[in-house]
Amino acid sequence: MAWFKKQRAPLDAAGKKEIPAGIWVKCEGCSAALFSRQLDENMKVCPKCHYHFKMSALERIALLVDEGTFKEIGASIAPGDPLSFSSGEPYPKRIQENQRRTGLTEAVMAGKARLDGRPAVMSVMDFGFIGGSMGSVVGEKIARAATTALEDGVPYIAVNSSGGARMQEGMLSLMQMAKTSAAVERLKKGGGLYISVLTNPTMAGVMASFASLGDVILAEPDALVGFAGPRVIEQTIRQKLPKGFQTAEFVKQHGFVDRIVPRQQLKKVIVLLMDMLVGRGKFVLPRGSPPPA
């Protein structure tokens, strides 16, 4: 007779049914309980308040790049430990833990790709890897991406998400600001197109260097954009900051961001810019011409 008895879901200690972890996600914008599968299908944008959740580098690539066309640049470059840094745990151990958890070798992936058939070079930062911080490897990959775009005569698209320079590498991390900025400048002087996409958050040394140098600067809605955090600024200037200070919308109102683009429209807008400004993978400036003054 046990065959006809209804099987009950297991109960926890409080007598409640157990719900598998990861089924529901709380929206950070409106606090709504969202079905995780539905959220993933909506490109990690809340269907109720349109809050844009953070995405991993791999998710970004899947969203923007034609399937099977991403060919990574500098995949074998590995971070060192120049300062023998330790803050509770050795720096190499922290790197290994982040590599295991994210499946990445560093906080950025760079590579050749196609967007709706258009060739380009793209770098995508991952905030989940030590806060997307920029150390020597991240700087090298960004510089190589800009150089490859110049050599191949294709646009360079940087999708940025970072808390800034990586303190575990000290001065070497700060040097990447100049290194990446110089690489982008060479691309632009060679007639190349550089599109910078600011996602939540893009801050500090990354924002103060290559992320702010785009020919066109796009941003996702409500992305935190700036150098120092609002609390630090308020404590420094001893004044209350305006409402919405350092959001992408506030920055756009002050002329720094060209356009706020919802995630669902991002690929379409980037492809449109490529078609308008460079055609299908060729610079406006003919190859071999001297760079503009």
What does this structure look like?
This protein is α/β, with parallel strands linked by helices and 293 residues long. The protein folds into 2 domains: 30 residues, no CATH class; 223 residues, 2-enoyl-CoA Hydratase, Chain A, domain 1, CATH 3.90.226. It is 31% helix and 16% strand. The strands form 2 sheets. A 7-stranded mixed beta sheet has the order 3-4-5-6-7-8-9, with helices on both faces. It has a two-stranded antiparallel ribbon with strand order 1-2. α4 packs parallel to α5. The C terminus is likely disordered.
User: Roughly how many Å is the radius of gyration?
Assistant: 22 Å
Helix content: 25-40%
Identify the quaternary structure here: single chain
Gap from first CA to last CA:
89 Å
Count every helix, treating DSSP H or I runs of 4 or more residues as helices: 9
CATH topology of the largest domain: 2-enoyl-CoA Hydratase, Chain A, domain 1
The total tally of domains equals 2
Share of residues in strands: 15-25%
Going by CATH, the architecture of the largest domain would be Alpha-Beta Complex
Structural class: alpha/beta
Strand order of the largest sheet: 3-4-5-6-7-8-9
Rounded mean pLDDT is: 84
**Which homologous superfamily in CATH is the superfamily of the largest domain?**
2-enoyl-CoA Hydratase, Chain A, domain 1
The low-pLDDT segments are 284-293
Task: Summarize the main sheet.
Answer: 7 strands, mixed
What's the total count of β strands?
A: 9
Elements, N to C (H/E) = EEHHEHEEHEHEHEHHEH
CATH class of the largest domain: Alpha Beta
Q: Tell me, briefly, the overall form.
A: globular
